[in-house]
Amino acid sequence: MLKFFLMASTLLYSINTFAADKIMPEKISVGDPEVGSSLVSTCAACHGSDGNSLNGSWPNLAGQNQKYTYDQLKYFQNGSRQNVLMSSVIEYLNTLTDEQLLGIAAFYESQSSNVGQATNDEELLALGEKLYRAGDLGKGIPACTACHSPNGAGNIQAGFPKVSGQQKGYLESTLKEYRSQKRDAGAYSLVMQSASANLTDRQIEALANYMHGLYEN
Ligand code: HEC
Ligand code: HEC
User: Where are the alpha helices (DSSP H) in 53-167?
Assistant: First the structure.
């Protein structure tokens, strides 16, 4: 019985990995940022015309790597990632081809992101920096630098998201949604569900404040 269970879960795991591999279309298409820029007028109301959003609770898309943005657009399209505000554009996203979504993602990647300003609270900054750089291994919290890089640029090849300069309110809400496992789209979300499982609200606030103020140089 146990053996069967193990076999079944291995199978499930390989199907999941298979599905994740299949997110990028068969024939790798690069996506045209010019085509993308002609498709995002409805997005500007929240994400800004250049991908720098208008509200601290809404994510910036400017400078985000194409693979990550593309994957998220697919998750919204297929309903595995859900959000009330984004639901207003799902019908529209459903009319777009993968090629067009790649174009949108390429357009946002080509835009430069605004630099954020962390709250100047020494204790909060120190806590955020310590967790971001070293994690808290006793609590199972990994160093964020391992995947998001020391300056928050993320990892373009792997499609790990850029977090530097990201809106603070959004960083907080999305970390809480990973923690509660509400954000549960795609195999990669499991990595963040595990990384955030033992974070307290105060630690999330500190991390969000720190990442918001990080910038690439
Ligand atoms: C009414 C406001 C609104 C509009 C219009 C809107 N968005 Fe969003 N978008 C949001 C919010 C809020 C989130 C954060 C969702 C969450 O917390 O899960 C989001 C998330 C995203 C994300 C994921 C960002 C990340 O860092 O994971 C992408 C990509 C995105 N939107 C693209 C678009 C595109 C493309 C359009 C236009 C077709 C669009 N959005 C229109 C509000 C909006
Ligand atoms: C092993 C690699 C890895 C580690 C370590 C890691 N992350 Fe992530 N992170 C990812 C991946 C991959 C995603 C995209 C997940 C998805 O598709 O939902 C992500 C997503 C995120 C997001 C959402 C970005 C967005 O625009 O919505 C935030 C915020 C984040 N991570 C913060 C952190 C913090 C804070 C830490 C350290 C406590 C951390 N990560 C540690 C790989 C990692």
Answer: 66-77, 90-93, 98-110, 122-134, 145-148
Distance 35 CA to ligand 2 centre (A): 29
- Annotation: CATH topology of 29-110: Cytochrome Bc1 Complex; Chain D, domain 2 (1.10.760)
Q: What are the average pLDDT values for consecutive 10-residue runs of the chain, which has 217 residues?
A: 40 42 58 96 97 97 98 97 97 97 98 92 97 96 98 96 98 98 97 98 98 86
Cα separation of 5 and 20, whole Å? Answer: 22
Beta carbons within 10 angstroms of residue 196's beta carbon: 21
The ligand 2 atom at the shortest distance from the C-alpha of residue 166 is 26
Within the chain, which residue ranges are assigned CATH 1.10.760.10?
29-110, 122-213
Q: So what's the architecture of 122-213 in CATH?
A: Orthogonal Bundle (1.10)
Q: If you take atom 18 of ligand 1, which residue's CA is the nearest one?
A: 83
